[in-house]
Amino acid sequence: MTVNETEQTSAETKTHGVLLTDVAAGKVKSLLEQEGRDDLRLRIAVQPGGCSGLVYQLYFDERSLDGDLVRDFDGVGVVVDRMSSPYLEGASIDFADTIEKQGFTIDNPNAAGSCACGDSFH
């Protein structure tokens, strides 16, 4: 493998297919400003658990782990680990702030179904 092929492969594997809406990116920026930290990124992961088999995890993280896939949304870094990436490909993360609901929402085309509470999927 040549140096150019190595650089190209590295560049191709560093991104993921998760979309962060402008509203969600604005909320993440606001939360980070409240924390007074500019070294954190939003990490999105899928872990075993819940009544449907898999659960989402969204949290701020300062770590860079081997195999992390990173994408920038208007200054907001979004990180997905390599194992979670196939489960999240094409997923869209938004933020709702209504009387009925407040918080981040995930629209995932890979989820075949979810439980009644909406916290887990399969």
Automatic annotation (TrEMBL):
Transmembrane stretches in the record are: none
Which SUPFAM superfamilies does the entry link to?
Answer: HesB-like domain (SSF89360)
Q: Any idea where the Core domain is?
A: 20-119
Q: Which Pfam families match?
A: Fe-S_biosyn (PF01521)
Superkingdom per UniProt: Bacteria
Alphabetical list of PANTHER family matching this protein: IRON-SULFUR CLUSTER ASSEMBLY 2 HOMOLOG, MITOCHONDRIAL
Under which name does UniProt file this protein? Iron-sulfur cluster assembly accessory protein
